[in-house]
Amino acid sequence: MRAEILAVGTEILLGNIVNTNAQYIANRLAELGIEVYHHSVVGDNPKRLKEAYDLAFKRSDLVIATGGLGPTKDDLTKEVAFEYFGKEAVLHENLLKNIEEFFKKINMPMGENNRKQALFPKDAIIMPNNNGTAPGCIIEEGNKILAVLPGPPREMKAMFEESLVPYLVKFQDSILVSKTLRIMGMGESKVAEIIDDILENSKNPTVAPYAKEGEVTLRITAKAKDEVKGNELIAPLEREIRNRLGIAVYGEDDSTLEEVLGKILVENILTIATAESCTGGLLAGSIINYPGISSVFKEGFVTYTNESKVERVNVRKETLDRFGAVSSETAAEMAEGAAKAAGADIGLSTTGIAGPGGGTEEKPVGLVYVGLYIKGEVKTKELNLIGNRQRIRNMTVMNTLDWLRRELLKNNVK
Amino acid sequence: MRAEILAVGTEILLGNIVNTNAQYIANRLAELGIEVYHHSVVGDNPKRLKEAYDLAFKRSDLVIATGGLGPTKDDLTKEVAFEYFGKEAVLHENLLKNIEEFFKKINMPMGENNRKQALFPKDAIIMPNNNGTAPGCIIEEGNKILAVLPGPPREMKAMFEESLVPYLVKFQDSILVSKTLRIMGMGESKVAEIIDDILENSKNPTVAPYAKEGEVTLRITAKAKDEVKGNELIAPLEREIRNRLGIAVYGEDDSTLEEVLGKILVENILTIATAESCTGGLLAGSIINYPGISSVFKEGFVTYTNESKVERVNVRKETLDRFGAVSSETAAEMAEGAAKAAGADIGLSTTGIAGPGGGTEEKPVGLVYVGLYIKGEVKTKELNLIGNRQRIRNMTVMNTLDWLRRELLKNNVK
């Protein structure tokens, strides 16, 4: 089966919003083993929309259209499709009731024009919308299939997974199973160098590297009869990659650094405290992203001023005078001071120049010192980061969390 | 002139990356007053790429292609275009020299296949790449124009602005000038209701609302001979909208809430401190996003545990026992305690249930109390938020900052 993705909406055409729906659907179709050769975008214009359907069905068996299911006159995706297939739309009373109930739930009056969202041909397969008012539908005509999904990504994704995927899997004789390995502290080119032969020679599964801000991911994808068989193909390759990359692999699939780290801390009952200057709370904010963290996160200090560094986390005034607030010495005292003030096993600290101002020749923007105190021992690390204020602060957080993770693993804390 | 945007690349087609280039280009072409009726995406496949050029030039005068200018055999965008127009590519020695110099600068050996990036027809208009190795080009053939830009967004945007815009403006007799108003504390439907007649009747300028996470933006766009004339058209409409929406308009264009708030605090020399429970540092982290904030941000306390609430910001144990950590009473004491401990004019606090666990019937997930202390007076506010942990924490930060902004404005602090 060959599919294509058609986004309908002037707001995408004019660049008001990014077409993230196309990426989501393309990615999922690849996983389902359905070929996609074209994406396109067309505005809320009946003539060009009809031409777009025509073109798409010349090239493909399955067209997935997103957007244009709203209640207004501009919303034409369904109407043009019904006309294209010569199908008459009739009111589906049960759908109308759902829409009325939706408005009751959110305590808003229903507009008369919302009735149009309950109009579908008799033989259409309805896809319910559990996150909004507009249902979607599947229309089969000969060996051509049109699926119409709503535009808002939250509604679209839920409907795609709940209704369209179960419909599509029956056409497949094989599926794609994939697993993503997440890597920190190693650039994409270095990763590619270490597993060069694997990237080059692997056919099934394939391995694709992708660089994101501050991390690299490796996606291993196997084509197989079912998920069990797919995972069997992936396992030995994953083992080999993990062997070569070692500690740099911090997690898999949707796991996050703070989740991986949080689990280690909670399972080993290691309490933690933070003292932050340049990151200003983002480090603590990130650690606390992990819901289970409350049993070990003692407290955080945002010591942006010199006075608070002295008063809260016991940095010595002479250290600040002699080495400055942005120094390895200050970072060390902040980390130790935070742990001791909070009565925690671990203290983490950050101090640096996030810019845009404040840099000097000796201490340029992007120079950051981070400190780590674990049970009596204190270490520091110098980071030289590039980018704007936001990026420097975010990269400091990621680097610091990854550093703690590595230090714990080195000490056999897992 | 009618344009369309063609993205070339299997990684977009398969949904590995989002086609943000299309959004950027579409948005800029709208500002330049160039009509766009289609976007499309095609993979690195010579046959389908040729068909895509053919289709695009049947519909449009200007085709802007992105991606596929790299050094590998997969990169075909230029090659297929030259063939499509029947033009022979020759080596441009000066471009080859640039590429060699680029590699020298980043201290890497140049691959033999990078030579291909210096191949262009004799009559192509070259667009230099100051951020990578692949130059772009413009090919004119009759009244058809093809512009080829590199795929990496950073390279694409720079080349678009530096070379393609200056080329395109000569075709324009008018430009689009736009201004965005940013609104918080009022939903999209409420905004639309208040300015319903303006949304309905305005032709030039037009006004388009757009809902983002936690805020609403209104984009006012005027078509005019030049920027001065455009701004003259925008001004009276902007004034009218601001009159009607009042304090809800917090900023314009690219300004952020923390920047707007930060400026008020710094200009009025109002010092601030924070005490955070559920936001865990994100509130301080957000305030500190504004680079000028260091003169007024005194310190932040991440008091995630009850002990730290008592010890650092002087919450009374009996308050915690009687009302609980998530209560208006605790929020009030945290805000006051933070301000007093730090010696600040203003104290802001957050305490709530961010989930996914920890909710009860009486205090469900999403219940958050925020506190505000200003010079002797303390207020609290109850928020009932929906969404996941991350969203609840982010919305708490946005609501709290906007609340402080409004309170300051109400007290004539601007």
Automatic annotation (TrEMBL), chains A, B:
Record CDD domains: cinA
Residue ranges of every copy of the MoaB/Mog domain listed in the record: 4-171
Family per similarity comment: Belongs to the CinA family.
Name of the protein in question: Putative competence-damage inducible protein
Encoding gene per record: cinA
